[in-house]
Amino acid sequence: MIQEPKRYTITAALPYTNGPIHIGHLAGVYVPSDIYARFLRLQGRDVAFICGSDEHGVAISMKAKKEGITPQEVIDKYHTLIKKSFEDFGISFDNYSRTSAKIHHDTASQFFRTLYDKGDFIEEVTEQLYDAKANQFLADRFVIGTCPKCGNEEAYGDQCERCGSSLNATDLINPKSTITGETPILKSTKHWFLPLDRYDAFLREWILVGHKNDWKPNVYGQVKSWLEDGLKPRAVTRDLDWGIPVPVEGAEGKVLYVWFDAPIGYISSTKEWAQREGKDWEPYWKSDDTKLVHFIGKDNIVFHCVIFPAMLKAEGSYILPDNVPANEFLNLEGNKLSTSKNWAVWLHEYLEDFPEKQDVLRYALTSNAPETKDNDFTWKDFQARNNNELVAIFGNFINRVVVLTNKYYDGIVPQPNEFSEIDEATLTELKAYPAVIASSVERYRFREALGELMNVARLGNKYLADEEPWKVIKDNPERVKTQMYVALQIAGALSVLAEPFLPFTAQKLARILKTENKLSWNDISENSDLISAGHKIGEAELLFAKIEDEEIQKQADKLEATKTANKAENKKAEPQKDLIQYEDFAKMDLRVGTILEAEKMPKANKLLVLKIDTGIDIRTIVSGIAESFTPEEIIGKKVTVLANLAPRNLRGVESQGMILMTTNPEGKLVFVNPDAEAGNGETIN
Question: Is the pTM of this model over 0.90?
Fold first, then answer.
C-alpha cells in the first residue's frame, strides 16, 4: 500500500455500449468510485477519475446483428445515452472517453506493438470454433454451451456467469453457435498469446503476499483460486471484423481481443484528459508516488487482477494497482439483473420517473451496496430508505434548524452564550466524524461511511429533541441562541460531509445555508465555528420529499410487464403428442356454437355455467374460464364445441360438452373461434 500518494488515478470499469446503464452497474462500480473520487477532492488531493465507453468486442457485434444495424450505429446510440445518464446522475468523471477514439486505437496498437517487439507474445496456430453455415470463426460470446465445471447449460465461451469460471470456447461441452444454432467445427487459425504462466511467480508475490491484508476477501479469494488453477497462455487477438486491427503483418481479418484493448482504455482516456487540461499524463500511470485504484464488478476481477497487471508488467514502465475493490452483484426483486431480458432499473428511465431524486437512488444503492455479498434491490426498500431515513432523519433535522432560525432570528445565526456540557459534548462529537467517515472511505467501506454520515444527522436530531428550543424559547430565549448556534454547526458540517454520497443534496443545503465554497472537510474537525454568528442563511426548502405507494406500484407494474413479456418470448410450444389414426380424430364431433347465456357457478371461483346453441340443441356446458372472462363479455361469442363428450356432473350441474380454448403469448386464455361466417351446428373436420 502507498502510504502518502502524491496523486490518485481512479478508474471505473468501461461500460459496454450494447445497452444503457442499470442499477447493478451503479451499485457495483460507479457510485462507490464516485464517492471515493469526490471524497479525495474534498481532501485537496490530485485526482484523475477516468472512464469511457467500451465499444469493441463481441457484445457490440451481437447487438448490431440483433437490431439489424451496424456496430457503429450501436456504439453511437449507447455511448451518447450512457454519457448523458452519468452526467445527469452526477458521476464526476474527470474524463469520459470511448475506445473507438483515435487516441485509443493508437495507444492500444502501440502497447501491443511494444510487447510484440520485445518478444513477449507466443504466436501459435490453434484450432478454434468455426460456424461453417455463417462462414466465420466464433468469438467467445458467439458460442454457448455447458460449463465443464458447474454444468450450467448456458455458459458463454469466455465465462460461466453461474460459477464465475473463466473459460475458452473450446472448453464448452456441446457448444452451439449463437448466430445460426449450428454445432461449430474446429478450424485452424493463427493468434498471438500472452503467456500468463510466465508471470505466475510475480502475481503470487505481488497479490498473495503483498496484498493479503488490504484487498477485499472476495477479490483476494478469486485471484488465489485462479492462480491455484494454473495460469495458461491467453489469446490477445480474435478473428472478428469489429475492433482494433492487429498491427502486425499476417494479421489481416484479426483484431485485438477486447479484454486486451479495454483496460488500455484507462490509459488512453487519461491521455485525452491530460491533453485537454494541459497536463502530463505519464505521472498518473508511471510514477511510484501515484495510487492506482480500479473499481469493477466481481465478473471483471480476473482481468484487472491477473491479465491487465501481467500486461503492465510485460510492458515494464507502468505502475500496478494499489487496490481493486470489486463489489459483488446486485439483484433486482430476487432475480439476477439482465440487460438481454430487460430485467433492470435503467438509469435514464429512473431519472425520468424520479426527477431530481438522484441522491435517493445513490443513498439506496450505497446503503444496500453488495460490498461483501450479493444483495437485493427492492422498490419497497428504496421507498422505506427515502421516507424513513432521508426524509425522517436527515431532511427533518435540516428543516427544523432552518425553519427555527428564520422564525426566531430572521435567518441570522445567533451569537451563542456559554456552552453547556451537552453543547460541548455535541460539538466535540461532531469534530470526530470527518476522521471516522474518512477511515471507512479509505478502506472502501462506503456503506459503513454512509451510516456514519447519517449518524451526524441523528446527532442533530437527538440534540434538538433533548434541548427542545421550541419550548425553552418561552422562558429562556438566551439559551435558545446557543442551542440554535450548535444545531447550525451540525447543519453546516452535513453540507460538506454529505458531498461524496449525496452531492445534489449537499449543494442544495450549502445554498440554503449560503455557505457555498466557504467550508472544507478539515474545517469540521479543526473549527467549532463553521457558520459564524451574524451570517444570514436562506429560507427553508425540503431536501427530500416522501415517495408515495402509487409511485412504487408503477415501478412494480413495469417489472411485472417485463416478466410477462419474457415469459411470452421464451415460451416453447408443447411437444407433439403420440401419433393417432384418422379414425381417432373422426370420433370427435366438433361443432360451431354461440354462447347464449353465462353465469358464475355459486361458490366456485373458476367455473362459468354456459348455455350454448350448438345448432342441434341448446345445451349446458360448465367451463373453467371464470378467472379470465366475465359472463357479460362472452355472451354472443362464437365458440368451438366438442359436442359428443360424455356428460359430467360438476357441482350438481350436468355439463354436456367442452369448448376449445388456448393461451396467447402472455399466458391469457383465448377462445379458439370459428370463422364468423360459419353457422351454429356446422361440423369442423
Answer: no
